[in-house]
């Protein structure tokens, strides 16, 4: 059973090609030959990314009493990265092949020879993954700043600000969405591992002693979030870290893994970081970052549960999960069975002909639906081709305006998954679509 499940189900090339063809993801600076491991999001990709962020923000921030959001700067005081341990230890062991010159992460290759040509490898040297730049006009050591390699530290350094401005009591958490940068040695697998990416992270502060059940709770909540957005449970699994995999300060960590085309890989990590982060920042900043617990009249450093995921990896996982092909009379129908709240386009308005009276009605419907949803208008080629184009980008519903519309003031709603059709009065269209789409 396990063997069958771990077999990659879909060639990544199909996803990469769909993404380029339909405008989800393009290679960065493509006309100059591309920039390795940076990707640009096209018109559909940017909508879908926004939908993922919104779904995450809704479930993890807005719908919870115990969560608030922030947005910290990408550039932070360089001492932040000394305190967090990134300056000293955010490094991977790098080896080069002396024969073919290819570069590898020593911990990702089996044995001590080059996996490409079998050649001899150099000794491993540690390579810090943080991008450095300079603040101000002088390029000297004193003005070095880093592009953040994670969003987490922005939440730790704002712990007191949030506590004082919101008067939250433990347990409570801070969430943030934003860009991070890592000079990865072996990026790849399309948008799975890139050098510039976006994270959605939560730092959830708890009373020591309550951390274990709350950690379990977050693992469950985060796992269910993917299921609620339609991800297939067969393609998701939890992987608790073994003790020797854990960072020295971490008490426990469980990854949510997804069955990507290249195999099971991390989608999100949920760690119990104990009180390491607040302790470190207290020590390095000289500020008291303890929490005063009124019940016990004591000061202590809260423990931290950290659910940390990446938007780009999620987008890839949702696309892979939704991708489907089925035979039809014209060959193969490609369908992205995306959850409506993630689909970049919710509704397509399709007039059957380009003749005036139909266009006027269709444009009127388009203007009305646009107030609520992201809508596309398409009047080119046959209706069958237009349905296929919408299926391929995951549009859940099409609204077809036909000649009968001029007589009965009704349109046809066509469903992406079932291809079923229903006739609906134009005056009932918005509630009918709302009911089918849910919260979007
Ligand atoms: P990995 O083991 O894959 O390098 P990690 O354990 O270093 O990931 P974290 O530091 O826990 O990752 O970051 C949290 C999340 O951020 C990851 O689960 C992933 O979704 C995302 N992420 C991390 N690095 C990258 C990257 N280079 N490209 C895209 N997403 C990333």
- The CATH superfamily of the largest domain is known as Bira Bifunctional Protein, Domain 2
- The residue fraction in helices comes out at 25-40%
Q: Under CATH, the topology of the largest domain is which? A: BirA Bifunctional Protein, domain 2
Largest sheet: 7 strands, mixed
By CATH, the architecture of the largest domain is named 2-Layer Sandwich
Q: Provide the gyration radius in Å.
A: 25 Å
What is the rounded distance between the termini? Answer: 36 Å
Q: How much β-strand is present in the residues?
A: 25-35%
Bound molecules: adenosine-5'-triphosphate
Low-confidence runs of at least 5 consecutive residues: 1-8
Indicate the CATH class of the largest domain.
Alpha Beta
SS-derived structural category:
alpha+beta
**Widest sheet, order of strands:** 3-9-10-16-13-12-11
Total of helices:
14
Rounded average pLDDT: 94
How many domains?
3
Q: Tell me, what's the shape?
A: globular
Q: Count the beta strands.
A: 23
What can you tell me about this protein's structure?
With 440 residues, the chain is α+β, with helices and mostly antiparallel strands. It folds into three domains: 2-78 and 133-319, BirA Bifunctional Protein, domain 2; 91-128, no CATH class; 345-437, 3-Layer(aba) Sandwich (Rossmann fold), CATH 3.40.50.800. The protein contains 14 helices and 23 strands. The chain has helices spanning 2-5, 12-22, 43-62, 78-83, 86-89, 152-156, 159-166, 211-228, 276-285, 311-322, 356-370, 383-393, 405-408, 429-437, and strands spanning 25-27, 39-41, 67-69, 91-96, 103-105, 125-128, 131-134, 144-147, 172-181, 196-206, 236-240, 252-260, 263-272, 291-293, 298-300, 303-310, 323-328, 331-336, 347-351, 375-377, 397-401, 410-415, 421-425. The strands form seven sheets. Strands 3-9-10-16-13-12-11 form a seven-stranded mixed beta sheet, sandwiched between helices. The chain is globular. The model is unreliable at 1-8 (pLDDT under 50). Adenosine-5'-triphosphate (ATP) binds at residues 150, 182, 184, 193-194, 197, 199, 266-269, 308-310, 312-313.
